[in-house]
Design brief:
4 helices; elongated; mainly alpha; 109 residues; single chain
């Protein structure tokens, strides 16, 4: 299931790269910004998958933890953690993926 989500995000990043105009022919900030957003979203998804497995083994109990509510919102919390991790540098995938998207755009033009 996690691999399917990762593949869907990769497909979205590839579609974004193909649909955005080449930065060589049209160097508007919107095109580069779309590519950067796709790269950032992809890295956040990768980190979310990694963090989900890390949080899966944590048991919460006591007066203020556990229950159905925590199960429902844990994935949202992990996604937010992952987004914040990307903002502070993450794994460093965003820059590499961003460059790859720009190269794909150049090849399509």
């Amino acid at each position: 299931m996690q691999i399917d989500a990762l593949m869907a995000t990769a497909s979205l990043a590839q579609q974004t790269a193909q649909s955005v105009k080449s930065p060589l022919t049209n160097s508007s900030n919107f095109d580069k910004e779309s590519a950067l957003q796709a790269a950032t979203a992809f890295e956040a998804q990768v980190l979310s998958i990694l963090n989900q497995s890390m949080f899966a083994g944590i048991e919460t109990d006591g007066y203020f933890g556990g229950g159905h509510g925590e199960e429902m919102f844990r994935s949202m919390l992990v996604e937010e953690y992952s987004s914040e991790m990307v903002k502070t540098g993450g794994l460093g995938l965003t820059d590499t993926i961003y460059r790859q998207i720009l190269e794909m755009q150049e090849a399509n033009s």
